[in-house]
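Annex B. Sample input.
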Amino acid sequence: MGKDELSIELINLIKSGENIAVEFKQATNALNKDVYDTVCAFCNREGGHIFLGIKDGMNEVLGIDPDAVDKIKKDFVTGINNKDILFPPQYLSPIEYVVSAEKLDEEGINHFDPNDKSHKRKEYHLIYIRVPESPNVVRRKGKIFDRNHDSDVDVTNNEQLVYQIYARKQNTYFVNKVYPIFQYSDLRKDLIDRARRMALAKKSNHEWQNMSDEEMLRTAGLILTDEVSGKQGVTLAAILLFGTDNMIMSVLAHHKTDAILRIINQDRYDDRDVIITNLIESYDRLMEFGQRHLNDRFVMEDSSNGSEGLESIQSISARDKILREIVSNMLAHRDYSSAYVAKMIIQKDKIIIENANRAHGFGNLDIMNFEPFPKNPPISKIFREIGLADELGSGMRNSYKYTKMYSGGIPTFTEGDVFRITIPLSPASTVNAGPDSGDELEHSEVETDISLEQLVDILEFCEVPRSRAEIQERCGYKSATYFKKKILNPLIIGGQLVLTIPEKPKHPKQKYVRKKSR
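Annex B, continued. Sample output.
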C-alpha cells in the first residue's frame, strides 16, 4: 500500500475508535513516550493497532508534521529495539500514510489542524503500527502492562493478573498441572464408577467398560508426568472432576461456584447455593437449582428432519436443555487459574452466567461466524464422554435453539476476560413471576401426563377453538382439576394452545385454539 491511500480496513479501524485492540496517539511533532506502554500491553494481550497523528481518546485526525515524520519513525524503532525500554526487544515497522481531507470527509472521520487557521488543509500524514501478540511476556522498563478495554494497565504488582498473562503464553493448559503428591487411588472411586456408568448409558460398548480406574484415567489424559520432577501424578483436571472436597481446596483454594436467585430481593438474593465441590456434583447442584426456580415449560421438538410420522414428535424440557448447555459450559470452559467466582444468576427476566475466561477476542459472539476454541480439553472430554456436553461449539447453537422455544428470546454470548451468557426469560419462566390474582393461570406447576399420541390428537382437535369441557371430554377425563393441572395448563404455558379471551382466563365463554406457526 502506497502513501497516498489508506486501506478500507485501516479506515474502519479508525472509525471504530479506541478499544481493546486499537490505540490513538497525537504525536503531531514528537513521539508520545507512553506509546511503549501500549506496545507492551498489545504484546501481552492479542496484539493491536497503533495510529500516530490521531487525538488520543477521540476519532479526530490531527496529522503529523511532515518534517517530523522521519524522526518519529526512527525514534520509535530505536526504542522498541532497546532492551532497557522493552524486553524482549520487538521488531515492528511503522508505516507512513498520507490521507486527503476529502477522503476523511467521505468516511465521516473528523479532522482538524490547530495550526491551520484557514481550515483549508488538504491532507494529513499518519503513521500506522501493527503490533502482533508476543509469544513471550513483554516488560516495559521492568513493568508488565496489559490491555483493558482502551487502556494500558500496569499489572506488575497484581500477582493474579500477571499469572494469567503467563498462562496465556503457555503452550499447555492450566488444568494439566500435575500433582505427584496425589495418585489415582486418592480420588473418589464412587465418582469414577458413576462416570463409567454414565458413559455406558450413552454408549453400551464404551471403551471404559473393561478398563481399570487407572487405565480409564490414563486414556483420558488425567494422569501425566510432571516435567520438573519427572514423577507421575493426577492432574488438576482429575482432581476437579473426581477429587474430594479437601483435595480440591488444597490445590485450588479459590474454587467456588455461586448459584443465586434474585427476583424479589434485588439487593441481596432470594435463594443461594455456594458450591465448593467436584465438577460432576457441581453440575448436579446447578441443574437442581435451576430446575427449582424455573418452570418446566412444555414444548415439542420435531426430530424428523423433514419426514412425517408421529414418532418424530418429542416432548422435551426446553428448560433442562438450556440449563445443560450453560451449566456445562461454565464448568468445562472456565479459566481455573483465576479467582473470579463463577456465577449463575436467575433474575425475573434473564439468566446470567459468568466465569473467568482465557479470551480469544472481545465482544458478542456471532453464531454464524464464531470459531470455538478448546479451553480445558481434558475436562471437556470427560463431560462429552458422560453425556453432560456435546462437541465443541454445539452449546451455543443449542442455547439459541432452545431459548427460542422456551422464551422466544435470543441469548447473547460475550467473550472477554469474563465470559458472559445471557438467556432472556419470559414472565412465565420463574416461579415468583406471574399473576397475583386468582383469575390467572398457575405457572408453578407445569408437570404433564400427556402422551405423544394424545398431544397430536388434542392439537388436531383444537385447529378450531374448543372449550375446556370439549377438550376434556375428547381426552376422556372426569376430573376437571386434574385435567387442567396435568393437561391443559402445560399446553397453554408451553405455547401449544392459546386463549381466545386472554385478558380474562376464567371467562365462561373461554376457548382454546392451537397456536399457529409463523
